Amino acid sequence: MSKKKISIIVAAAVLVVVAVVVGAWLLLRGAGEKRGGDKIFVESVAAVTGIGGGVQNRYSGVVEPQKTWEVKKSADKTVKEVFVKEGDQVEAGTPLFEYDTASIKDEIAQAKLELESIGNEITDYNNQIADLKKERDQAFGEDKFQYTTRIQTIQISIKQAEYNLESKKMEIQRKEASLNNAVIKSEIAGTVKSISESGYDPYTGKELPFMTVLATGEYRVKGTVNEQNIRMITEGTPVILRSRVDESQTWTGTVKEVDTKKEAKDNNNNNAYYEESMGDKATKYFFYIELTSTDGLILGQHVYIEMDMGQAEVRDGIWLYGSYLITDDSGSYVWADNGKGRLEKRTVEVGEYNEDTDTYQILSGLTKDDYITYPVEALYEGEPTVRNMSEVSE
After folding, report:
1. How do 331-337 and 302-307 pair as beta strands?
2. Contact assessment for residue 197 and residue 71, using Cβ atoms and an 8 Å cutoff
3. Per-residue pLDDT tens for 186-233?
4. Number of H helices, E strands in the chain
5. What pLDDT does residue 261 have?
6. How wide is the angle at C-alpha 24 spanned by C-alphas 22 and 27, nearest 5°?
């Protein structure tokens, strides 16, 4: 059985349980055929059937790129000039900023002088050894041994100087490479998201990259879920994304990753999107959605996220849960508000049956704007109805 089918069955079961609880409550409100002044709570068919997604949990989401390139500034360098600003579109190879190379040039010049000095030192050592060897050839006995010792000492000094020479050459090579790479170019095509001159967040003190570039063309959606609802989201679950501006505009995708290791402390909740959850102060986590299509989506756009339980499928008529229907020899009916605040038996015409959701297609007799109640034995026609649960006991 697919995850989508399981989700549909679970959602249907939850609604049925709620309906049963309401029905049991109505039944316990009073035994007997006539309960006097009791009022019956009725709900709209739209709410009962979930038309418009009213029963769906929603999670906040934002469109982001699949890839983000963070450029860190070298701690030992100074930025001379920045060529772009936040929001600029760049291509791979576009110059972003340039390091100040004046000090590097001075350092290279100084290092080359030191390299020349070391070379002269080695030459001087070799000349000394040549002179000492000549003098040793003319010496005798103990003096000859002394010359040999002096030569060996100078040879050790030469080895140290040669090591210093190679180290200095490598230092110059690094500085020259740094000089050649003074202009930092973008590695990807995208949008310059942020530039941090200080390298730190002024509010949190968190270290920031000098520049962040968001890749274009490959979007995903990053959703936020709290710790109470995290178990409702699993990898591979199909989802529906809705525009916050126009909810009829939708996209589809699949949960690709649920990150339970990192708390979403840096999530921006300044926007007015919402999540039907169990508390605003609960720990929140990120989950990521792979999109079927990105047509019409904009980088940074905020969307609603719903688990796909088939609510996006367009079906003819109204599909009502079987527990709301009563069927006898004369046909099928529901308990409905008669439009005048009184309960009536409303005959309905039933069509197809969906086994996955235990719903029947209502061909006639009800509209989404009608109000119905869960059927219990104690109901009777003419009983007063209310649309606010708090009015039942008044």
Report:
1. unpaired
2. no
3. 998 888 988 988 777 777 777 889 999 988 767 899 999 988 888 888
4. 4, 22
5. 77
6. 110
Strands 385-386 and 40-41: what pairing?
A: parallel
CA–CA gap between residue 233 and residue 306 (Å, rounded): 10
With tokens 């490959």, the residue in question is: 218
3-class secondary structure per residue, 16-50:
HHHHHHHHHHHHHCCCCCCCCCCCEECEEHHHHHC
Please give the Cα distance from 69 to 185 (Å, whole number): 12
Closest CA to 298 of 259, 244, 225, 255: 244
CB 307 within 8 A of CB 223: no
Nearest to 17 by CA among 358, 340, 386: 358
How many whole angstroms from its chain centre is CA 122?
61
The first and second tokens of residue 130, run together, are 């040549």
Report pLDDT digits (tens) over 365-392: 999 999 999 998 889 999 999 998 778 7
> Could you tell me if 309 and 11 are in contact, meaning their C-beta atoms sit under 8 angstroms apart?
yes
Res. 22: pLDDT tops 60 = no
Handedness of CA 371, 239, 258, 301 (dihedral sign): negative
- Mean pLDDT value across residues 80-86: 93
Beta bridge partners of 243: 303
How far apart are the C-alpha atoms of 230 and 181, rounded to whole Å? 46
The amino acid occupying position 100 is: D
Does 49 score more than 90 pLDDT?
no
CA within 13 Å, CB half, 158: 14
**Nearest by Cα to 232 from 59, 52, 53, 2:** 59
The answer to whether the Cα torsion of 299, 305, 308, 310 is positive or negative is negative
How many residues can be counted in the chain?
A: 394
Read off the amino acid at residue 254: T
At 55 the pLDDT is 47
Give 8's contacts (C-beta < 8 A, 6+ positions apart): 309, 310, 356, 357
β-sheet bridge partners, residue 253 = 239, 291
Residues 6+ away with beta carbon under 8 Å from 54: 46, 47
